[in-house]
């Protein structure tokens, strides 16, 4: 995993997804070298880079022009741009032009989560996986309900990470936002 500190960042763009969360997402995604990944809400490209190291092809999508710029810069910095197509645009529009894929990773949906999941599910291959990362309670609930409505069986993992900061008297643990990963397989 690429250390968080090594990413190019912009305070206006979320990310990168914390290193420990990226580890769990890679595990839950079961990504392989044969997989095509569609990532919605790529932010600074933390997950994009990890998928690019493992997958056959990655489509990294974000509405935010600055997010697309930062993702491209990070891909270039780490030499991973050859397997990634970074697309600036609305997820629902972009999904229309992608024929099929193995993994749908949603890290940001601008309030369109059910619609994105449903459209993605249509193009998702059998045994393909949908993953949703969430910091909002409402997004977690929405992801679970949408997966269930599509006949999927959601797996829900809530992760709380604390990092140690060395101070004069010892090590103070500082917590990051808890993140929930909701995932399911298309049968």
CATH superfamily: Vaccinia Virus protein VP39
User: What share of the residues does DSSP label as strand, in percent?
Assistant: 25-35%
Low-confidence stretches: none
Task: Give me the number of helical elements.
Answer: 6
Separation of termini? 30 Å
Query: Could you tell me the mean pLDDT?
Result: 95
| SS-derived structural category | alpha/beta
Task: Give, in order, the helices and strands.
Answer: HEHEHEHEHEHEEEE
What would you say about this model in short?
The protein is an alpha/beta fold. It is built from six helices and nine strands.
Would you kindly provide a written description of the structure presented here, covering whatever features stand out?
This protein is α/β, with parallel strands linked by helices and 187 residues long. It has helices at 19-29, 46-54, 65-77, 91-96, 113-123, 137-149; strands at residues 36-40, 57-62, 84-88, 101-106, 124-134, 155-159, 162-167, 170-175, 179-185. The protein has 6 helices and 9 strands, in the order H-E-H-E-H-E-H-E-H-E-H-E-E-E-E. The strands form 2 sheets. A 7-stranded mixed β-sheet has the order 3-2-1-4-5-9-6, with helices on both faces. A two-stranded antiparallel ribbon has the order 7-8. The two termini are 30 Å apart. 40% of the residues are buried. The mean pLDDT is 95.
Outline the fold blueprint.
Blueprint lengths: L18 H11 L6 E5 L5 H9 L2 E6 L2 H13 L6 E5 L2 H6 L4 E6 L6 H11 E11 L2 H13 L5 E5 L2 E6 L2 E6 L3 E7 L2
Parallel strand pairs: 1-2, 1-4, 2-3, 4-5
Antiparallel strand pairs: 5-9, 6-9, 7-8
């Amino acid at each position: 995993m690429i250390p968080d500190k090594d990413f190019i960042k912009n305070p206006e763009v979320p990310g990168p997804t914390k290193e420990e969360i990226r580890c769990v997402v890679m595990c839950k995604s079961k990504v392989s070298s044969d997989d095509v990944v569609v990532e919605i809400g790529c932010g600074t490209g933390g997950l994009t880079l990890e998928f690019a190291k493992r997958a056959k092809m990655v489509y990294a999508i974000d509405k935010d022009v600055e997010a697309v710029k930062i993702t491209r810069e990070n891909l270039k910095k780490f030499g991973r741009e050859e397997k990634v197509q970074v697309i600036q645009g609305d997820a629902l529009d972009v999904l229309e032009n992608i024929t099929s894929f193995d993994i749908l990773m949603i890290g940001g949906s601008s309030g369109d989560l059910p619609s994105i999941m449903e459209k993605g599910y249509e193009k998702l291959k059998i045994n393909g996986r949908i993953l949703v990362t969430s910091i909002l309670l409402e997004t977690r609930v929405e992801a679970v309900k949408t997966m269930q409505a599509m006949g999927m069986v959601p797996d829900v993992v809530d992760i709380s990470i604390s990092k140690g900061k060395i101070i004069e008297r010892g090590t103070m643990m500082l917590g990051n936002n808890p993140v929930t990963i909701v995932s399911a397989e298309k049968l």
